[in-house]
Amino acid sequence: MAEQSLRGEPALPVERPRLPRPTPIAATPTHRWPTRLLLLLLIAGAAWLWWAESTRAAQVVTIQVNGRLEQVQSRQSTVGHLLHEQGYVLTSQDIVYPPRGAPLQANQAITLVLARDITLVADTHYQRVLTHAERVGDLLLQQGVSVGSEDLLLLDGRPVSLEDRLPILAHQGTRPQGELLVRRAVPLVVTDEGESLSFTTRERTLGEALLAQNIFLFEGDTISQELTTQVTEGLTVEIARARPVMVTVDGRTVRTRTRAQSVEALLAQQGVAVRPLDIVTPTLPSAIQDDMVVTVTRIDHEIIAEREAIPFETRWEPNPNMELDTQALMQSGAEGVYSRETLIVYVDGQEHERYMTREFVEQPARDHIYAYGTQIVLRTINTPDGPRQYWRKIRMLATSYTAATSGKSRDHPAYGITRTGIQAGFGVVAVDPRVVMLRTNVYVPGYGIGYTGDTGGAIKGRRIDLGYDEWNLKLWYNTVDVYLLT
To answer: Are 262 and 348 part of one and the same domain?
Structure first.
């Protein structure tokens, strides 16, 4: 509003003079030093805080998580930092006491109640809920979900009741989790061959609902809905049954229903192939009747050829033209063949009867024949005592013994007495009489002349025990040629 003059007349507007804008003065180093000082102070303060945190002594505190006690050590300064350090990711629904911002103190008790993370599935709705409810019923009440007496509750796939507890803490830092499914009982009406049946079901598909009610479908039956149809309120189902029959074939009995008009058509429908020898009761052209029993008896013929081996015999034949201790194969043995042909009749896979049609020796056995020499040939061997004549040479394992090692004590009446009654010592050897006769002179290279006058419990087969005087035992254990002297 314009100012008025002293006389009450409007005063003319007065234009204010414009003053020149002051020229800014260029910054100089003396104007920036307060900013640099402030920055240095901030850096120093942060470094001091880092040093204080890193050198803070570890404090022992007790954490109670959903009722589970746990004692830890930490250098953190606040309750929230400690819980973060321990791996707990908190939400606004979790309860922490003392509060997260409270300073951490030695021997402090911290209570943490983690809200349960429950996925609630009810009436086709999925909802994730963070709750402190302890029981299934409490959670459903909080969420306003009503449950009928025939509804099914599944917690992580396991049937539960309203009084069952929700999941508890499983692992450190892990929030209790679970999935609660409310499966509603749905009324269903099934008309089976004109008979109406009403019931409620908690199954998901029509096939599962019928199975739960022991309503079975057989081959030939028709149903108005697919078995995979989801069960919903108001669903109605009609079942038309075929004629009940029973088919027995191949060791199994099938109860089924059919709309076939003849036995032949029924068997074709069941995939049963009838062979020329099979017996069908009733006959193939017979008309199908209710509760008819159809039997297919399988008849099979088989001709088998059985062959049995005729074992050959092994014979040893003396040969006076062959030298003693030699042998030769004169004829290789071969098994013979005995053949038998049999006709077998099978009824339903079981042998019913069999007939022998033919049996004969197809190939006779041939004996296995060895010849062994009986001709004695005298030979000479040079010994330290001069040439000696021998009639047989046997490869034997040589050991040695004295009277003291023969197993009898010195005060035994038979101490040092051999099998033939002579005194044990050098020159007396023990043999197996089945290989070398007793009272026979033998020559053993490296030992000399020995007299087979003794036996031994361990001297069996081709083994010879060389006798020594007690004061002059020489140990033997090697294979040598033993010469039987004339």
So the answer is: no
Number of domains within the chain: 6
- Whichever domain contains 481, its CATH number is 2.40.40.10
Does 473 lie in the same domain as 413? yes
List pLDDT tens digits, range 312-355: 999 999 999 999 889 999 999 999 999 999 999 999 989 999 98
Taking the whole predicted model, whether its pTM rises above 0.90 is answered as: no
**Is residue 162 located within the same domain as residue 204?**
no
CA-based radius of gyration for the chain: 56
d(CA 371, CA 149): 99
Name the strands in the sheet holding 222-223, side by side, starting at the edge strand that comes first in the sequence: 195-201, 186-192, 236-240, 222-223
Of 134, 163, 183, the domain-final residue: 183
Does 363 reside within a domain? Answer: yes
Are 383 and 449 within 8 A, CB to CB?
yes
Q: Round to whole Å and give the CA distance between 463 and 450.
A: 14
Q: Which domain holds residue 201?
A: 186-240
Residues 388, 471 within the same domain: yes
Query: Does 48 fall in a domain?
Result: no
Q: Is residue 9 part of a domain?
A: no
Within-domain flag for 256: yes
Considering the domain architecture, whether residues 440 and 389 belong to the same structural domain is answered as yes
Average confidence (pLDDT) over 233-243: 85
> Secondary structure of the chain in the HEC alphabet?
CCCECCCCCECCCCCCCCCCCCCCCCCCHHHHHHHHHHHHHHHHHHHHHHHHHHCCCCEEEEEEECCEEEEEEECCCEHHHHHHHCCCCCCCCCEEECCCCCECCCCCEEEEECCEEEEEEECCEEEEEEECCCEHHHHHHHCCCCCCCCCEEEECCEEECCCCECCCCCCCCCCCEEEEEEECCEEEEEEECCEEEEEEECCCEHHHHHHHCCCCCCCCCEECCCCCCECCCCCEEEEECCEEEEEEECCEEEEEEECCCEHHHHHHHCCCCCCCCCEEECCCCCECCCCEEEEEECEEEEEEEEEEEECCCEEEEEEEEEECCCEEEEECCECEEEEEEEEEEEECCEEEEEEEEEEEEEECCECEEEEEEEECCCEEEEECCEEEEEEEEEEEEEEEECHHHCCCCCCCCCCCECCCCCECCCCEEECCCCCCCCCCEEEECCCEEEEEEECCCCCCCCEEEEECCHHHCCCCEEEEEEEEEC
**What's the pLDDT tens digit per position in 269-315?**
899 999 999 999 999 999 999 999 999 999 999 999 989 999 999 99
Domain check: are 147 and 121 in the same one? yes
Cβ contacts of residue 474 below 8 Å, gap of 6+? 400, 468
Determine the Cα–Cα distance for residues 12 and 460; give it in Å rounded to an integer: 158
